[in-house]
Design goal:
binds zinc ion, Quinone Oxidoreductase, Chain A, domain 1, 28% strand, alpha/beta, 29% helix, 2 domains, 315 residues, seven-stranded mixed sheet
């Protein structure tokens, strides 16, 4: 089988590697495709805390495909089942998954792109967000995750303000029912204050993973409101305005999930939402590449060409 190997920063090679055999409790999946995640960018760029070469297929973790072989005790999963899964070496033709992380795709979703991990993430963030019908919500950062959360919050009947730097992403957020707000200049708290008639937001979701967006998000939460940190803050410590957090008595939720059982629940919820037509991520899959074009997918992620939201790799 062929697997993509990140040999050194910005250098990807397709290499033949041995087809892995599923161990007890595992299945082997013929990968149809894999999402290219914003959280993969630091390893592509060569941040100093990574070493190289990376394992074959890493850091692909947003795969979907078809079960191709099953190990013992794999919980009734069968060869030929279309599935979505949480795996870690999925920039490859095949990958192994623990059966406990695999969710079957219903007939209506076979053949459709289904990068499961970020969809599960979005469902889990929503579960912890406290967003209700008529909640006033701001989403700060309208990349793929922010776009998904905007759609889910709109579908829940919330009033959603989508704050981002790119007009193309905001147009999609607007088409999902959100109020678009272009992040230019430093008067955003004032503009949100005006939009919410001086109330600010019940819930603010920070979905960009940067100090500046964390600072902005905290300024938009009303007294006793909720700040939900969905962005992936992976490049060192952050500072927070504890005086402001404290004075306003806000609830702060770190909505990243590390618990595999919770991930599995998130995946099941995502499959259910998309299958029922309550969530359509399709318009957000803006760029597609072959496995042999993975470098191009990373460059698109890095450069964000006009209209870019999410790249998929077809394996
Ligand atoms: Zn991801």
């Amino acid at each position: 089988m062929l697997s993509a190997v990140l040999a050194s920063p910005r250098q990807i090679q397709l290499r033949p590697v041995a087809l892995p055999e599923p161990q007890p409790g595992q299945v082997r999946i013929r990968i149809d495709g894999c999402g290219v995640c914003g959280s993969d960018l630091p390893v592509w760029l060569g941040r100093p805390w990574f070493d190289y070469p990376r394992a074959p297929g890493a850091p692909g973790h947003e795969a979907w495909g078809t079960i191709d072989a099953v190990g013992a005790e794999s919980g009734g999963l069968q060869v030929g089942d279309p599935v979505v899964c949480l795996t870690y070496r999925s920039y490859a033709e095949f990958d192994l998954a623990d059966a406990s992380t695999v969710v079957a795709l219903p007939a209506g979703l076979t053949g459709a792109a289904f990068p499961g991990e970020p969809l599960a993430c979005a469902m889990n963030i929503m579960r912890r967000s406290g967003i209700e019908r008529d909640s006033t919500v701001a989403v700060v950062g309208i990349g793929f995750l922010g776009s998904l959360l905007t759609r889910l919050a709109c579908a829940r009947g919330a009033h959603v303000i989508a704050i981002g730097r790119r007009a193309s992403s905001l147009e999609l957020a607007q088409s999902a029912g959100a109020e678009p707000l272009l992040a230019r200049g430093d008067d955003l708290p004032h503009r949100v204050n005006m939009l919410t008639h001086g109330q600010l937001c019940d819930v603010v979701i920070e979905a960009a993973g940067a100090q500046a967006t964390l600072d902005l998000a905290a300024q938009l939460v009303r007294v006793r409101g909720r700040l939900v940190i969905a962005g992936y803050h992976q490049d060192g410590p952050r500072s927070v305005d504890m005086q402001q957090w404290n004075w306003n008595g806000i609830d702060v939720i770190n909505a990243h999930e590390r618990d595999l059982a919770a991930y599995h629940t998130g995946l099941e919820l995502a499959v259910r939402e998309v299958a029922a037509g309550r969530l359509d991520p399709g318009p957000l899959f803006t760029h597609e590449f072959g496995l042999d074009e993975l470098s191009g997918a990373f460059r698109a992620l890095e450069q964000h060409p006009d209209g870019f939201i999410k790249a998929l790799v077809r394996c």
